Request: fold
Amino acid sequence: MNPRAELLIDTAAGPAQVTAPAPRDVWWDLAGRDAHLGVTQTPTWLDCLCETGPYRDASRLYAFADGTRIVLPLVGRERRPGRLDAEESWPAGWGIGGPVASGAVSPGQARALLADLAHRPALRVAVRFRPQDAALWQRAVPGGFRLEPHMNQAVDLDGGFGAVWQHRFHTRARRDVKRAEKAHLDVEADRAGLLAPVFEELYDRSIERWAAQQHEPRALARWRRRREFPRERLAAVAARFGESCTIWVARNAGEPAAAIVVLRHGPHAKFWRAAMDRDLAHPVRAVPLLYRLAVEEACAQGCRVFDLGESAPGSSLEHFKAGFGGVGRPSPRYWRERLPVSAAERGLRTAVKRVIRFQDA
Reply:
């Protein structure tokens, strides 16, 4: 645990005490009372980042004079001096972060929190907001921050699985599920992390398929994908989430064909990862069957929402998720940098793609 620091800051919304890292008991208390809290806004998710990546806990608690308390989940980079640090909620690939509060946050308090971030000494500061309260925080963003648009898709589980199946699943999704059921696939739901090696095997096959689709050398694809999702990450997440992490695996004629990972916290279920052997999975529609089973279980567990994660507007992925009732809503990310590091990184990636004739899938 990083040493805890406390300071008092003056804001337009009055004085506020800032504590960093945020005390876990306060964070969990606010998490239990925040109606829109997502899986990726919990302390458990931050612990997963720090265990499997070069990160440290940089979360911040803001306590205002009127009793309002806000926790901002945040990680910094390990072993980097302050001026070269990156403080993000969250880093790319880790989903939605953003503030956690027990009740309504005033516009003045939102501005105070973001103004504090604007004055952090880190090279880069970034926050991605959840769709439910993005409008409030967007209006509070100070000058110097740039918008990075994202869209998140989620299924409303109100009414139970019968209503979701009948009124939110599209005809094509129901047809694919019925086709999979006729194929008599063997499906296992693992809540102890035992099927993590099976998922990793399917993920490696997925990397090879993506490399071929994108005209990318396999070695580069493996390095790039495994840098973003190292082998130990799923096992670590499964260990920390326990029974709230389910690895669904479908087998075709005894061979692993497809797998998905679903996380849960309270009434919020989240699809996290998927992998498949397309030759085994696609003809029998194994992936749609796993989606159907995961959504049905979330309904049975009393979840109110099934988060399908990010999709690019107009993409085939957005179309696929919409088939299961996924409705897209903006989930903006705002960031600022003291030096144009991101622009340099994008330029380098573009140059490499041009050399290898990379084709975006």
The chain has two domains: 5-150+335-356, 153-330. The longest strand covers residues 255-265. Residues 5-150+335-356 form a domain with the Aminopeptidase fold (CATH 3.40.630). The radius of gyration is 21 Å.
